[in-house]
Amino acid sequence: MRFFLESTLFLAALSPVSAERVLGAYVFARHGDRTPKVFGNTRLTNLGYREVFDAGSYYHNRYIVADSPHRIEGIDEKVVNAKQISASAPSDAVLQNSATGFLQGVYPPARNAASETLANTTTVEAPLDGYQLIQLSPISSGKNSEDATWLQGASDCQRAGLSSNNYYTSDSYNALLKSTKDFYQSLSPMLDRAFTSSQMTFKNAYTIFDYLNVASIHNATKDFPHKSDLTDEVYRQLLALASNQQYNLAYNASDQVRAIEGAVLAGEILSGLNDTITSQGKSKLNVQFGAYGTFLSYFGLVQLPAASVNFTGIPDYASSMSLELVTNSPGKDFPAPSEIGVRFMFHNGTITGSDKPTVYPLFGQSKTLLPWNDFVSETKKIAVVSDEKWCQVCGNTEGKCAAPSSSHSGSVDTSTAGGSGGMSRAVAGVIGAMVTLAVILGLEALFFLVGGFRIAKRRKAGSEVEVPTVMTEDKKS
């Protein structure tokens, strides 16, 4: 079946009659330039705002404008249609503001729709020349990720945190910690405003790189007196070491729970693209923003380092990747899933001028166009597609993973769960206790009746009667 589909797509691409049709896309992007993490309270800079806006403008020209050969079929060109686009970002100021700036580029102000006339003939002009409002949905993962100096700092997944911590006891980590000690100590003149001497080690490779990277972009010599020490060679070494550390914190082939953020993203991508297919193209474009760690986790899971070793490096500001649903099926009807392929593209850094993303193969394959059914089967192997699956993978038992009953064993009693006629352990326990009490009371009554005994109330002066109290446990929902 795979050979037949790929052959069909290939032959159709050669046909002068049939042209490729883009049915939908899922874009995942990193924030723009920001202040350094080491001081906390990170914010998007004006440069970062410009970077994400330019990146969004590229996707406007690719997916929205009428004369683009890659325009998403049927997408509204001038005025955004909320049913056609979905946008999301974690509850993080840098990421949410980046997403907003990016979307301004995707759908610029609609000046032709900037005014409307009311029933009383009053004309109302829209603010900002028709600035288009696009709803941005929050996502639970990655909260405050741009204030976290540790990759898993924004992840609540317990097993992922433990897995990442295991890296700090590995031979490869300890070897680099030792071999780079002198290198990091030599950076002291550039770091002493933000780091103590004991912090100038490979353990803080990313935070050190981030601090010096921001300083090299924004600080003049008077604010960065040792700027000349940050040579190109030193910068490349800092980036290589930070990338090595962060990729190993984000992904491990033998312990894939470490890549939980990438697994969640894979599930969201699968869901978003599947919505395009099941809705027959009514849902067209998904845009999501996230941190560099999510990129690295996803890259590892879909085996992109097999296509290029660059996928083990930290993506630059405003980097983006896009997964497109394409077909060579002729006509205007929405094609069958067997006629749809998935193309993956990535661009490191913001897209400006004549730049454009590069196409890469997924899952270690040689072909860059993957049949939809194959994409689904491969993605399901790595994706986390539900809260229940996330809780199972992460081993969490609190919050959204809290059990509905007071039992904290994490297991489900299959003898009572799932059937409409079954009852919970709590209900069964109450009923059992009531039956036992009734039997005891019945026996006592019989005992007093047969034996001729009667109950006499006796109370000492000044004494008080104790009333038993039934305590109910406050259970988490």
What does this structure look like?
- By secondary structure, the chain is α/β, with parallel strands linked by helices.
- It has 3 domains: 2-147 and 259-394, Rossmann fold (3-Layer(aba) Sandwich), CATH 3.40.50; 157-250, no CATH class; 403-442.
- The chain has 14 helices and 10 strands.
- The protein has helices at residues 2-14, 46-63, 93-106, 158-167, 171-179, 181-185, 188-191, 205-218, 232-250, 260-278, 292-301, 372-380, 387-394, 425-451; strands at 21-30, 85-90, 115-117, 123-125, 137-139, 285-290, 320-327, 340-347, 358-360, 369-371.
- Helix 9 (232-250) crosses helix 11 (292-301).
- Residues 400-419 are annotated as: Disordered.
Oligomeric state of the chains present here: single chain
CATH class of the largest domain: Alpha Beta
> Biggest sheet: strands, sense, closure?
8 strands, mixed
Q: CATH topology of the largest domain, what is it called?
A: Rossmann fold
- Return the domain count: 3
Report the CATH superfamily of the largest domain.
Phosphoglycerate mutase-like
Low-confidence stretches: 1-17, 405-477
CATH architecture of the largest domain: 3-Layer(aba) Sandwich
Distance between the termini: 47 Å
Q: Characterize the overall form.
A: globular
Structural class: alpha/beta
> Could you state the order of secondary-structure elements as H and E?
HEHEHEEEHHHHHHHEHEEEEHHH
**What is the overall number of helices?**
14
Number of strand segments? 10
Region (Disordered): 400-419
GO molecular function, one term: phosphatase activity
Family: Belongs to the histidine acid phosphatase family.
Transmembrane segments: 426-450
